[in-house]
């Protein structure tokens, strides 16, 4: 105890007591500060390790957008369709690592008609305001062909644009065939399934041969007034290549999500008919990846 120091002379003993007490207080304060700092650093390290582990475990999904910004026959603006990216993104982004790509790379054109049509859709408008960087700085498909093994699934967003630039894009086809050969999920919504028409299994048979598949229907295309502006009716071609496997909702614009297997490889094949099917496609992708 400090009182034991009063054996010395007068004021000097008092000074000694003060010094000892102050030193003890300083040491005690330093010990508390060090303990708090150590505790904080340990918690921070644990959080970083948990985040790193989470990132390692999260599946990686390659999302493909169109680079086509005009409909050749009409000159009208087109591109990818807002809710067909916004809604799957809402489902996927907290549970998967998304990489966005397009044939040309850079900014992928957003169809302005989809912005207007879904101006009252909260998910689409929130996505539009907060996630612009996702489609303004896309990777180039050609740069990802050699990196297909780094991803766990591939997903094609719809819009009328894919009807013109993704039906026979060589890098896109190489990616689809690589994913299918590795038995990884191949998914597409609305006009996105056009990218599957010319994809083949290693044996040479069409990937969608004998499979149930869906996509934007001829009735829906007629209702938006663009059937004649398309290079071909998507429903008709999907039905032909699949060997009569095209299916659709009972009513136009109804939700329809189909999960099947690719021919020759048995990879999960996920297709959605229209904008109403976009969220369902996202959920089906997670299910195929075993993510809950």
From TrEMBL:
InterPro entries for this protein: Class_I_gatase-like, DJ-1/PfpI, Prot/Nucl_acid_deglycase
GO CC annotation: cytoplasm
Record keywords, A-Z: Glutamine amidotransferase, Lyase, Stress response, Transferase
Superkingdom to which the source organism belongs: Eukaryota
Catalytic reaction(s) noted: methylglyoxal + H2O = (R)-lactate + H(+)
Transferase is among the record's keywords: yes
Family membership noted in the UniProt record: Belongs to the peptidase C56 family. HSP31-like subfamily.
The protein's name: D-lactate dehydratase
């Amino acid at each position: 105890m400090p009182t034991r120091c009063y054996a010395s002379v007068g004021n000097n003993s008092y000074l000694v007591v003060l010094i000892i007490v102050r030193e003890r207080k300083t040491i005690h304060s330093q010990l508390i500060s060090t303990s708090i700092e150590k505790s904080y650093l340990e918690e921070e390290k644990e959080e970083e390790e948990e985040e790193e582990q989470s990132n390692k475990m999260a599946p990686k999904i390659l999302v493909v957008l169109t680079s086509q910004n005009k409909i050749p026959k009409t000159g009208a603006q087109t591109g990818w369709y807002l809710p067909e990216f916004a809604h799957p993104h809402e489902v996927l982004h907290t549970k998967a690592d998304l990489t966005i790509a397009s044939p040309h790379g850079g900014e992928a054109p957003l169809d302005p008609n989809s912005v207007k049509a879904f101006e009252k859709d909260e998910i689409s408008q929130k996505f539009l305001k907060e996630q612009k960087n996702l489609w303004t700085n896309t990777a180039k498909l050609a740069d990802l062909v050699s990196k297909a093994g780094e991803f766990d699934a591939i997903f094609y967003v719809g819009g009328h644009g894919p009807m013109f630039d993704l039906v026979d894009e060589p890098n896109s086809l190489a990616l689809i065939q690589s994913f299918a050969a590795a038995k990884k999920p191949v998914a597409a919504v609305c006009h996105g399934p056009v990218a599957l028409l010319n994809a083949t299994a290693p044996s040479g048979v069409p990937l969608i041969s004998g499979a149930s598949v869906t996509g934007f229907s001829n009735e829906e295309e007629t209702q938006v007034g663009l059937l004649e502006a398309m290079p071909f009716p998507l429903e008709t071609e999907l039905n032909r290549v699949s060997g009569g496997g095209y299916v659709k909702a009972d009513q136009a614009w109804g939700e329809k999500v189909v999960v099947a297997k690719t021919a020759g490889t048995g990879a999960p094949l996920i297709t959605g008919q229209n904008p109403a099917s976009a969220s369902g496609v996202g959920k089906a992708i997670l299910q195929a990846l075993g993510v809950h």
